[in-house]
């Protein structure tokens, strides 16, 4: 028989399930943090290179 056999799980499979889900949530949160920091850094580099975008409501560019 192919597929998943629940009898192969360890006796404390609830802890395994909880640990797996907590790990996934932590990885998702870490990805969100890293993506936000990457975007912030990229935006700061673009501001330093080109100045603020006129659509952002800023009328004077830093010199």
Quick synopsis:
Keywords: Membrane, Transmembrane, Transmembrane helix. By secondary structure, the protein is mainly alpha-helical.
The overall strand count is: 0
Q: What is the N-to-C order of secondary-structure elements (H for helix, E for strand)?
A: H
Distance between the termini: 71 Å
What's the overall geometry?
rod-shaped
Strand residue content: under 5%
Main pleated sheet: none
**What is the SS-derived class?**
mainly alpha
What are the low-pLDDT stretches, counting only 5+ consecutive residues below 50? Answer: none
Radius of gyration based on Cα positions: 24 Å
Transmembrane segments: 15-35
Keywords: Membrane, Transmembrane, Transmembrane helix
Keywords:
60% helix; mainly alpha; 1 helix; rod-shaped; 63 residues; 0% strand; single chain
